[in-house]
Write a structure and sequence with these properties.
Helix content is 29%, strand content 38%. It is built from four helices and eight strands, in the order E-E-H-H-E-E-E-E-E-E-H-H. The protein has an eight-stranded antiparallel beta sheet. Helix 1 packs across helix 2.
Length: 160
Amino acid sequence: MANTQIIAEPGVPQLIVSAEFLAPRDLLFRAYVDPDLLRQWLGPRRLTMTIDRFDPRHGGIWRFIHADDDGTDYGFHGVFHGEPSRERIVWTFESEDFPGHVCLEPITFGERGEATVVRQNTVYQSVEDRDAAVASGMEEGINESMERLDELLGRLVLVH
């Protein structure tokens, strides 16, 4: 299982997530940029994910919708900055429930022996925005997403 760490330092408008996976970096990168794989792991299990738009290139836009069993939709969107590579992806992230509160999310993929360490540094516009995100239960969603990603990678490594 992925060893996930979430750091939210008091007074700093960022959230750092790191997780280590026993899988090659190329496979981790693919899990982030292949929409068919992305929808299999991103978000809590109780939600169904639909990808409305996903164009992983510099200036490309993305939009995901998570839906619960009651039919409530939770939309998120952003823009890719720079050309995504197996070393780094940078995108913005905005919840459609909180318009105008945009985050910048650089995601890096570092090799450590046979493992890959994924590090996401979500930079918020304010400490209040970061604290509101943490209070919303995002930590549970992050942990569950990393568990789901680890399960997916386990299946993909077998056929890789």
